[in-house]
Amino acid sequence: MASQAEAMNTVCPVSRSLDVTGDRWSILILRELYMGATRFEEIQIQTAATPQMLTTRLKSLESDGMIERRPYSEKPLRHGYHLTEKGRAFYPVIHALRAWGETWCKSKDEGIAVNFVHRACGHDVGVSNVCPVCKVPVERKDLDSSLSDKYAHERAERRAAFKAK
């Protein structure tokens, strides 16, 4: 990741955005936060990042204003990680990566990994950001999610393998 000074050497918004989020680990951390994970261990389990890598990326995302730490335990002192307004605003990028990946990076017989249902009308939105039934643009806050059995099993296996270490 580029330093703040290096990022300012261009007015290109794509380049500047990549300076904040342009690596695999940052994107996967943000995915986990959107999925509801807040604790270091759970984020580590589901991203497969080393503790050092995860610590570095969490600090970077925090310094860039994408996430904030909040204590959830005093003794011992432990922090959870939460999206800020800036971090929540990044969700359309994650959604676009998800839609592209569902369309182009897997076979049709695999099915969709995460199903999203529009809370207002109860219909599945597929990989769209517009409800196909009521034609309303939807954001993450408008959707209920459920993991496919295969994806839920994959995540559970990661958790079990980590706990067995």
Question: What features would you describe in this structure?
Answer:
The chain has helices spanning 4-7, 13-21, 24-34, 40-47, 51-63, 85-88, 91-104, 149-164, and strands at residues 67-73, 78-83, 114-118, 143-147. With 165 residues, the protein is α+β, with helices and mostly antiparallel strands. The protein folds into two domains: 1-89, Winged helix-like DNA-binding domain superfamily/Winged helix DNA-binding domain (Arc Repressor Mutant, subunit A, Orthogonal Bundle); 91-165, no CATH class. The strands form two sheets. A two-stranded antiparallel ribbon has the order 1-2. It has a two-stranded antiparallel sheet with strand order 3-4. The protein is globular, with a radius of gyration of 17 Å. The model has no long low-confidence stretch (mean pLDDT 93). One of its GO terms (molecular function) is DNA binding. Keywords: DNA-binding, Transcription, Transcription regulation.
Summed up, what is this model?
The protein has 165 residues and is of the alpha+beta class. It has helices at 4-7, 13-21, 24-34, 40-47, 51-63, 85-88, 91-104, 149-164, and strands at residues 67-73, 78-83, 114-118, 143-147.
